[in-house]
Amino acid sequence: MITLRNIQRHFDYGKEKNHVLRGVNVDIEEGEFITIMGPSGAGKSTLLHVLGLHDNLWTGEYYFFDQAVHKLKPKERADLRNKNIGFVFQSYHLLEEMTVAENLAVPLSYRNYSKAEREQLVNETLQKFQLTDKRNLYPGRLSGGIQQLIGVARAMIARPKLILADEPTGNLHSAQAKEIMEMFCRLNEQGTTIVQVTHSETNAAYSRRIIRLFDGNIVGES
């Protein structure tokens, strides 16, 4: 599904360069459930944003279903992302000017769903995540935990081929976290590929493969 070869990413700080990814090579098969782990500053979130096509300032080769992403224009990369990838952001990234229901509908607008189908999927998702009473509220009126749930729901709603999750349960209590991880497992069993970044060994135990990063390098897999 995904092949990364010699992916490098650095950030400029004045005249100095901070190398965050140093020649990363990764193969991800369709249907895998992978966890990326490592200490703070190891490059985990940066790698996830490269995979999710939110970051275009890397070098190297990236193939998505044999399509050479590194040769695509920014708009083509965005189209590829919007049609195939769901992303759970650590900091939610909900649209403040939209209600909960409207936030959930955003990923559906990139796919060929009718208005009736979009409304049905939003209603089903609100029920599944027990958010029906929040449908007309704006994110600013909601707790961090509820915003996190909405972010997870938004990533799942369009049934993407790939879900990328950055600390997906960081603001949830243990029962909610367990429920989200079990949802991920059910989606994975149905064929969705999942890659998560987490510090939680409990969450990592749900995955089938762990990739360990240190100082921008892959230092081990299990």
Structure description:
With 222 residues, the chain is of the alpha/beta class. It has a domain at 30-45 and 83-221: Rossmann fold. It has 7 helices and 10 strands. It has helices at residues 44-51, 74-84, 100-105, 115-128, 144-157, 174-189, 201-204, and strands at 2-13, 16-28, 33-37, 59-64, 67-68, 85-88, 162-166, 193-197, 209-214, 217-221. The strands form 2 sheets. A 6-stranded mixed sheet has the order 6-7-8-3-9-10, with helices on both faces. A 4-stranded antiparallel sheet has the order 2-1-4-5, with helices on one face. Strand 1 and strand 2 form a beta hairpin. The radius of gyration is 17 Å and the shape is globular. It starts with a strand and ends with a strand. 36% of the residues are buried.
SSE inventory with pairings:
Layout: E1 2-13, E2 16-28, E3 33-37, H1 44-51, E4 59-64, E5 67-68, H2 74-84, E6 85-88, H3 100-105, H4 115-128, H5 144-157, E7 162-166, H6 174-189, E8 193-197, H7 201-204, E9 209-214, E10 217-221
Parallel strand pairs: 3-8, 3-9, 6-7, 7-8
Antiparallel strand pairs: 1-2, 1-4, 4-5, 9-10
Largest sheet: 6 strands, mixed
The rough form would be described as globular
Radius of gyration: 17 Å
What is the name of the CATH topology of one domain? Rossmann fold
- Mean pLDDT over the full residue set: 96
Identify low-pLDDT runs: none
Q: How would you write the strand order of the largest sheet?
A: 6-7-8-3-9-10
CATH superfamily of one domain: P-loop containing nucleotide triphosphate hydrolases
- Straight-line distance between termini: 20 Å
Name of the CATH architecture of one domain: 3-Layer(aba) Sandwich
Order of helices and strands: EEEHEEHEHHHEHEHEE
Q: Please give the share of residues in helix.
A: 25-40%
Number of helices: 7
